[in-house]
């Protein structure tokens, strides 16, 4: 079973567990036809994520760079996720000046209002049709709206932005035409938006990114537009999957749902366990060995692609007691769902906030919610990067 293909729910974890039983390192061919070494062990994954000999390779480590015109590629791919030091260090420092804890914390009331209003829509859907797709109607609009709000994207542009972001999120598994059309439109829109914020600075993240200074240094035009694209790619489907995978796990484990509902102070730890149990990101961006590197007793030659299976590492029996059990009171946390090392997720505080508010609001509003299908009939989308459900149909008991 290919763990990156479209699979019935549960089969991805089963396939990875089978692979992991044979050892912590494996040779596979990825859906992009690239041969790669895949790490499934927690200790080996953590070490690899912090190893400077495993490099991202810069802006060329992106979908369709050979086919796309260089100007579009430059405006989308000059961001920190594929950068190595010293460029990564510089970009991360500038972005961290703008994307502060304060920016995130002050979103709390907005996210609460947003989730309440989306749950009104879910209630309407349930009343009218007897069923609702929690992924499309709830998990997806939460992060999409939050990123648009953060960046100060006007409401009338958001339908277009959603349309353009969809092929970008599919990355290299979409067709070139679909990807390129969306990329060009998104870039043209982002360039106009940056101009607009320059003319009329606002109290938003994009204005803060434009104004971020480190001595004489600042983000270039390509770096600014690439950062906007990165926020959508890194912050949408990942958070969609935290909310939808999290909701699925809670609905299929009523005892655990009752445990967290009994004391709201349990939510932050519950979100960590949900991140471990069914991690939203399958793998970080693949890396290449800059020199031969020994991993789990095997010498991986130079110039070889290495990927870390976050799903497998987060269920490694050598690291977690009863790893396939959802235990919201688990004390042996420290999952790798947000990565590790210099690329550890910049958006983790925001993702945790969104995940907690969205799941708490959902379960408080609808204590009688149940799955509308057998869990085994749900499907995961094919993807190298994301561990995302296609849909999450629910109904009231
Ligand atoms: C549950 C939700 C999320 C998960 C599971 C997640 C996961 C990750 C992972 C695994 C990485 C490391 C990737 C690598 O090493 O290649 C990463 C990096 C990153 N994430 Fe997230 N992420 C989430 C939400 C967000 C959000 C909401 C944002 C921002 C709005 C965001 C922005 C970023 C950025 C900018 C990076 C690049 C950091 C760097 O390269 O230094 N993420 N994320």
UniProtKB/TrEMBL annotation:
GO MF, one annotated term: iron ion binding
Q: Answer yes or no on keyword Iron.
A: yes
**Keywords, ordered alphabetically:** Heme, Iron, Metal-binding, Monooxygenase, Oxidoreductase
InterPro entries the UniProt entry points to:
Cyt_P450, Cyt_P450_B, Cyt_P450_CS, Cyt_P450_sf
- PROSITE patterns to which the protein is assigned, alphabetical: CYTOCHROME_P450
What PANTHER family does the annotation carry? CYTOCHROME P450 YJIB-RELATED (PTHR46696:SF1), P450, PUTATIVE (EUROFUNG)-RELATED (PTHR46696)
Instruction: Identify its protein family.
Output: Belongs to the cytochrome P450 family.
What protein name does the entry list? Cytochrome P450
